[in-house]
Amino acid sequence: MVRVAAIDCGSNSTRLLISNVENGRLQNLLKQHEVTKLSENLIQAKEIGDDSKKRFYKVLRKYLKIIENNKVEEVLCIGTAAFRNSRNSDEIIDDVKSKFKLDLKVISGEEEGYLTGLGVQSSFEDLENYLIVDIGGQSTELIYDIDKRVNVDSKEIGVVMMNENFLNQNPISLVDEDNAIQFFDEIFYTSDFSDRNFIGVSGTFTSIGSMYLNQTKYNEDEIDRIDISYESIHNLYENLKLQTIPQIINSYPSLDPKRAATITSGLFLVINLLKKYEINQLKVSKSDILEGLILKYF
Fold first, then answer.
1. How many folded domains does the chain comprise?
2. Please, are residues 143 and 116 in contact by the beta-carbon 8 Å criterion?
3. How far apart are CA 44 and CA 153, in angstroms?
4. CATH code, 37
5. CATH assignment of the domain containing 180
6. Are residues 85 and 198 in the same domain?
7. Among residues 212, 287, 198, 206, which one has the least CA distance to residue 35?
8. pTM over 0.85
9. CA 229 to mean position of chain CA atoms
């Protein structure tokens, strides 16, 4: 048995998983996330900003203390869309190596999808005919099987991008929503996914699951594998798009307040994906790229 830590340096949040691994099976000991918004203003500035770096480095320091206290033997660290799209990625990667002794590896959207698929499949028995959706801050991955082969379609669209460029104020105006729909339709093409098992992973889906269950305190284990209907997602989106950010925070105590500004954008993407692919229900999975990253190497 080996104890491994995986760190996912995502566009919206930085997440940590510590697991014991034996014979290709994981025993998760700890899982945490912190909203760091590495992709904040990235489209305009073309680089990860100083405030984002400060938040990111602060969280890495916290995680490394946790890793040390848990006597972890191996540490894996990846960066996704924010690093792929930023012109100062190399500078930050060098900083992370010198300050924290971490080798941060930037992965492609396709690899991001494959690792996510691997993580999700590890917690389902004989998963077939699936459409796994991972919505991040700057990208969204669609992972699906055809003739038992995994396919990944990575799109340059995510909750932070949508929030900054289209849905940047709550309540959402009809004009902003129409512009967002037009942009969405330019990114996602029509595919025959209507009979597939839609499985949502990432902070957007787990947050939606927590809100759907009316949790007073976020509990990922209760959220895992719950089914949520299209009607429930639609009602939640219609409710949130009429509220201010403080109202959202007050209405949903289990929601991380740092996610309140982007959760409406997340729901917008989910409801429009369900519409586009004519799917009436989704299942939430707590297993994702972190589990997949560990399983790839162990």
1. 2
2. yes
3. 25
4. 3.30.420.40
5. 3.30.420.150
6. no
7. 206
8. yes
9. 20
Question: Could you give the CA distance from residue 177 to residue 188 in angstroms, rounded to a whole number?
Answer: 16
Query: To 10 degrees, the CA torsion angle through 230, 128, 111, 95?
Result: 60
Tens-place pLDDT, residues 149-201 = 999 999 999 999 999 999 999 999 999 999 999 999 999 988 889 999 999 99
- Beta strands 13-22; 2-9: pairing state: antiparallel
Q: What's the mean pLDDT in 54-71?
A: 98
Q: 87 and 136 share a domain?
A: no
Q: How far, in Å, are 103, 191, 210, 245, 292 from residue 241 at the CA level? A: 40, 27, 18, 10, 34
Residue type, 191: S
Q: Are 194 and 277 in contact (CB under 8 A)?
A: yes
The structure tokens listed for 294 are 């560990």
- Kindly state whether residues 77 and 156 are assigned to the same domain: no
Enclosing domain of residue 156: 125-284
Q: Where are the alpha helices (DSSP H) in the chain?
A: 42-45, 50-69, 81-85, 89-100, 109-121, 159-165, 174-187, 203-212, 220-223, 230-240, 245-251, 260-276, 289-297
- Specify whether 156 is located in the same domain as 231: yes
Do 15 and 91 lie in one domain? The reply is yes
Pair type for strands 74-79 and 2-9? parallel
Cα 48–31–214 angle (5° rounding)?
95
